[in-house]
Design brief:
The structure is a homodimer.
Chain A lengths: L6 E5 L7 H10 L4 E7 L16 E8 L2 E7 L3 H12 L6 E8 L11 H11 L4 E6 L8 H17 L6 E6 L10 E4 L6 E10 L5 E10 L8 H6 L2 E7 L9 H7 L4
Parallel strand pairs in A: 1-2, 1-5, 2-4, 5-6, 6-7, 8-11
Antiparallel strand pairs in A: 3-4, 7-11, 9-10
Chain lengths: ~260, ~260
Amino acid sequence: MHNKEPHILLVNDDGIFAPGLAALNEALQGLGKISIVAPATEKSAVGHAITLSDPLRIYDFHKNGSFFGIAVHGTPADCVKLAVSALLDEPVDMVVSGINLGSNTGLNVIYSGTVSAATEGTLLGIPSFAVSLATYKNPNFAPAMRFARKTAEKVLEQGLPQGTLLNINVPNLADENAIAGVMVTEQSKARWQETFDRRVDPKERVYYWMGGYKVEMDEALVKDDTAVRNGYISVTPVQFDLTDYQQIAAIQKLNLLY
Amino acid sequence: MHNKEPHILLVNDDGIFAPGLAALNEALQGLGKISIVAPATEKSAVGHAITLSDPLRIYDFHKNGSFFGIAVHGTPADCVKLAVSALLDEPVDMVVSGINLGSNTGLNVIYSGTVSAATEGTLLGIPSFAVSLATYKNPNFAPAMRFARKTAEKVLEQGLPQGTLLNINVPNLADENAIAGVMVTEQSKARWQETFDRRVDPKERVYYWMGGYKVEMDEALVKDDTAVRNGYISVTPVQFDLTDYQQIAAIQKLNLLY
């Protein structure tokens, strides 16, 4: 597909310091030229935010004494836009976002900075995928690294349908041979149920901490959450036409008038 | 539908100070009890962001000497979550987000804080809609106010399909009788083409300003952008299953293996 070495852009939302990004970089070594452009700080749950009202500051980020990538004081979507439009000299052939700590399944996909970076790549016409590991602690990146590499090879070879990205979620298993398989899945209706912890600061001003827990709504194995819970790597094709085509007739029947 | 007065939550992403929110409040007077919970500062293009790593501070916002609403140092989605789960004593019967300055059509919907607030309401099981006015300057809120009120009446009476919100975009016309009509539309593929203005600050650090222009991709009148450009009020039913069902077979054929 490529006459020259492919150019791969890596991004994430946990920040340029995150071990998941280093793991992704390690996993894709040898597949092409890798450029890393990632948020300077953690940007979890920024959703598909972009920064319009502030300038985007950048700096070179070094690791173990050598250049690692460009840190952007912005969101994951900002990183991809800025990388492709301004920072990188060569065209990007593939965007890979991750490896995120915490799954991006069910309705949480709409809050996901990790997925938004892959969305942004896709909007720019670049085959893109996002990889998340379903844990916040004691991560074993090995299965996600292995699958990210195999997927990257396939995507560089065969591309992806235009306008479609892959949202990949990997179960966190200590034994990398315990992965049950790969399943092409659908976004479930699982959602985050918020709780708010009300507190009062020393100056007697009220503030709240958002917390919560996941509510599972669907047990079918074809759903992203269920697949991951059962030890499968979940691959969901994602697109961004939010039109609810099935309800167009119902909304027309509402007969909204000016 | 209601034995008692309906409880309507108003929110926006331009901030609690914004004239569009005051216009919406004015438009819906008399339809029920109105509560306003909105961002303390402008939050445009925050997408579906939520605030997990910072506390959410709130304060009472007064206007012309009387209580207007609660300002939240957070995103539009934060406002709805916090309002429904913690701040308001009574259940909310409808969420209305807006009136936003600037259209939320085409692919820009995924960046829209205005739409994300209505999405959040819908996820909480509350009929919700978002209203945007297609201009950044010289707004005439009158047509959007009139249509928001008529829509609110209908939605309070008849509800909305579960899991579906309305994304409403109103053309900015000086003459409110020039509105061509109401059209139930589909999200177009129109998108924002970014430009980045590279600058160097007095300390010789590089920074970028994001700018851009809209690229229209579709001229069919049933598309949100085109409808608005032709003087119609656009009503798009929106849902949040991002699964690309049409590409599931193609992704299965990729035969991704672990």
